[in-house]
Design a protein that fits this description.
CATH superfamily of one domain: LysM domain
CATH class of one domain: Alpha Beta
Radius of gyration: 24 Å
Structural class: mainly alpha
CATH topology of one domain: Membrane-bound Lytic Murein Transglycosylase D, Chain A
Helix content: 40-55%
Strand order of the largest sheet: 1-2
């Protein structure tokens, strides 16, 4: 008696996709978990706003990646509700992210 097992290619393809997505989600979760720096362990630089300074220009000096993310961090930490800065204002800019 011979027993032949037929492989369903659709099931194999779906299993491969599910495994790939699972591995991707695990890698993303690990990356986020290990890249998080608590607020009390972050280092900041105090910047005095000069004439012509914008959040973009300040953030671009200290951003190691996405400038928009750095602007969001600056606004969040300094409780800024708008993008407008006042000359002479002191803002804190996170420098270790």
């Amino acid at each position: 008696m011979t027993y032949s097992r037929r492989i369903d290619k659709n099931k194999l393809f779906r299993a491969l996709i599910i495994m790939t997505l699972t591995v991707f989600m695990i890698v993303q979760a690990a990356t986020m978990a290990f890249s998080y720096i608590p607020e009390n362990e972050r280092e900041y630089k105090t910047v005095v706003v000069c004439s012509g300074d914008t959040l973009w220009s300040i953030a671009s000096k200290y951003a190691s990646g996405d400038i928009r993310r750095k602007i969001k961090d600056i606004k969040s930490f300094n409780n800024l509700e708008s993008d407008f800065l006042t000359v002479g204002e002191h803002i804190l800019v996170p420098i270790n992210d």
